[in-house]
Amino acid sequence: MNVIPIHTARPQPPGANLPLDTLGRHISDLRISVTDRCNFHCTYCMPESAINCGFKFLRHDELLSFEEIERLARLFVAQGVKRIRITGGEPLLRRNIEQLIEKLASFPGVEITLTTNGSMLAHKAKALKAAGLHRITVSLDALDDATFRHMTGVDFPVRDVLAGIDAAGAAGLDPVKINMVVKRGANDHAILPMVRYFRGSGHTLRFIEFMDVGTANGWKLGEVLPSRDIIRLIDSEYPVEPVNPKHFSEVAKRWRYKDGAGEIGVISSVTQAFCSSCTRLRLSSEGSLFTCLFAQKGHSLRDLLRNGGSDAELSATIAGIWQRRDDRYSEIRTDNTAGLKKVEMHYIGG
Ligand code: SF4
Known about the structure:
Layout: E1 29-33, H1 48-52, H2 66-78, E2 83-87, H3 97-105, E3 111-116, H4 121-131, E4 135-139, H5 145-152, H6 158-170, E5 177-182, H7 191-198, E6 204-209, H8 227-237, E7 240-243, E8 253-257, E9 263-267, E10 280-283, E11 288-290, E12 299-300, H9 302-306, H10 311-323, H11 329-332, H12 345-348
Helix pairs in contact: 2-3, 2-10, 3-4, 4-6
This protein binds iron/sulfur cluster (SF4).
């Protein structure tokens, strides 16, 4: 059995005059949710049960316009943001999303990425690339329709998501990152079939530990399959070795197949917390700022934005929110914290 070494991340100095939070972290990643709606009902995010009990999605006039998002994003970039990820709900449900990508892609030196469930990607990939999108991540929790249905709560053919991944590759958005949330007893049997399918494809398959996000997914620690067990399972058939992170706040721990068949990754919020290098902010589709995926409340920027707030006032508000930040939820998670009234993931994106 190979000894599984632990990765080492090198801290990066923040830029001059950029705000630091109470744990010395700077801002470099912004996730922008452009809608709280989704056409899937993934059990770990927005299960059917949560939707059927009179859940109200945001009205269109409550959503930030693309112009408002662009203005705020420009202010975040001035505070150190280097990577912007567009999320949802399902971001491709937001009409003319390419127009927003074009605006954001005009920021020099900023990487624009997007996370999607892939259901509309086959038709959209070319336009997203043409609009300036740099990279794309597709959520896919199994290859067989039965397990996929069990995880997503909808009857949607996996082949259409795979066609979306192929279209993204053909459009030049490769390597595509494929995110698989692993829930013990639900889809862990699908790990090796996914590995076999994506090995040698040039795309990067990543495994995400089942997390206690939001309030509706009925999270239990017993349903978490630790990343080290996932790596052991894969290593027993396809030997792997660790790869150093690309940057300080990279979420996934990278591994590569020793036979050169590509890379995989694991995102271990439950068993290997990475809060100490968390430089992420999340902006909801109605303009509320969240300093952690497991936050219980956000800070509205929309009100200031729509009541004539100046760029200086907005920037000071953003910096102030960050400088008061002390989030490290994954380091302090317990069975008791799992039940806290946390923000829903489909409202702020993963
Ligand atoms: S739990 Fe919160 S602070 Fe920790 S890594 Fe996740 S988003 Fe960052």
